[in-house]
């Protein structure tokens, strides 16, 4: 399969499956946009296995197969030359200094989902966030490039990833509960007097959500310092994606109990507005 065809398929996956993500990567020049689409398509593949309907053992087997694909890519190879996601990633890794092995961190996070890990402390919850979201930020830095200390940029990418994923967790409380998952730490749930599965009491869950939203806001304040280490287009891309989730967090913080009624989202017009502001250099 030709790289151009592989990238086209990866971009289709991104447009359909990740509208928030796609608002940001549209702002990148074509080579970087293609590489980011390939990264997203692989991340989506991993998530689809972890969130799919298969029994636990089959999920873990599927994730092990993806690990083998990632390890081969990291070693400079390609297991399936007809797989558009793998072909796109192979080309992107050859074009940019992408730390491909970091994709295995997303796999590790999804393995935790598959086995139903219970998160007792905020440190455990934040480590999960680092695996599934911070890793994406660090992979993205391979495409974007950075100004200044690359180790500091990687740390900030982790912090921003935690902010984004905590926002996801708060937004998706009902949806996650339907899959038997609770990501907020059991210590905090008990402290606020909530049911272990976050079914209530409503006021207690609202207080917990407000508390965790403040924590996510602190991570945003620190993680957004990463923008100053990126070039204009990469900064706009990251600012658009982060800005959408940051505004979503503000909506959650304003009405914490609303997450118990279902998933919150921003209207398309507001997402586009955030993207345009990011391109103009406005990041809040």
Topology pattern, helix = H, strand = E: HHHHHHHHHHHHH
Helix- and strand-based class? mainly alpha
Unreliable stretches: none
The percent range for strand residues is under 5%
Count of distinct strands? 0
Largest sheet: none
Global morphology: globular
- pLDDT average, as an integer? 93
How many angstroms does the end-to-end distance come to? 41 Å
User: Count of DSSP helices?
Assistant: 13
- How big is the Rg? 18 Å
Helix content: over 70%
The oligomerization state is single chain
Secondary-structure map with pairings?
Blueprint: H1 3-17, H2 19-25, H3 30-51, H4 56-74, H5 84-95, H6 103-115, H7 122-144, H8 150-171, H9 173-178, H10 186-191, H11 202-223, H12 232-254, H13 268-279
